[in-house]
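Final report, section 2: Outcomes. Of the targets proposed, MFS transporter is the one most frequently requested by collaborating groups, and we therefore present its record in full.
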Amino acid sequence: MATTTAVRPRALVRASGGPRYAVAVAVDALGTGMLRPFLLLYGVTVLGLSAPVAGTAMTAGAVAGLVCMPGVGRRLDRGERSTVVAASMLVRVLGVALLLATPDGDVWSFAAAALFLGVGNQAQPAAHAALVATVAHGRERDAALAAARAVRNAGMGAGALLATVCLAGGTTALRALALGTVLAYLAAAALAWSVHVHAGPAAAAAEDGHGGSAPGMRALIAANVVYVFCLNVPEVALPLVLVTQMHASPMWPAAVLVANTVLVITLQVPVTVALSRFSRRSVLAAAGVVLTASYAGFLAATSLGPGWGAPAVAAVAVVCTLGEIVYAGSATALVTALAPAHLLGRTLARFQLSTGLGLAASPAAITALAPHGPTALWGSLAAATLLSASAVARNPEPARP
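The predicted structure is given below as tokens.
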């Protein structure tokens, strides 16, 4: 099995779709970072909606956005790549434009804007992975996918920081922030479309040699619903536990979130490259073991109570982030390696559907389990994740590049 033993920036940029596409990914992430964390505040502060109503509309929009995934998969399997990526960005332009046009108190227009944003947010990861799989192969493709995730986290972090500064300006600044997001998405869409990446579906089907789905894909997609809970641990579970149950300073969850972002940006590519000597499925199973260990660590840390409890949780969060990095570096890479070439788009769409379902379900599951105590929360997450890792490990990876 071929491995990638060094990180070469120029090769990564080329494998990621070229300089223009790399800039498009960064600009798109900047726009998402400016808007996504403050969409709820926009609904409450600018439009005058209640927080529960605005939150429900956002959740409904995100879940409804998953309905687009079968269509996205079919378009990708027709050979479209950069066009679908650009379309996912343009759909979000429509969403933000509708947000700007929403009258005060109009929850239905706000929900429609959230729907367009949800469609774009769900479609973009699958379309991006398909584009990278078209221009790069083998372990170079894995490193390129990891690099894009690092760039995306950096862009979203910078966008969120910019949005935080704008919050001091009140309603006018929030509207200006939304307008800036429109411009960012438009620029990203133009850059993505300009790379003109297209795959030949007929050639792909002929080269693949078989027409069915990859073995073990259903188990992998089911396991992903549980794995993806780790992405909401720093944003949902830890703030809930640290502030409302352990009565720690809000500084602790903020520090955990910053550390998580910095670690992903700096370690995503090196860790993915270092693990390229092992099979992708083994690495993904190992990610589940690391995440399980971190959940067990959170259970032990919360038992320490005030004083040492918060620092211990923050320390275990580093282990959880490492598990997230290993998971993110192997999951999509494994799917692209397993999927028959002519079914790549639909396979990635199904995988993104499982990701979206996991992300949508995890806040509700976490907030439902947390009141029943640390054992209910962290014990359940540990057991479910370990079971998922076992299911991943039981299916051997076929010999593919």
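Residues 309-338 form the longest helix (30 residues).
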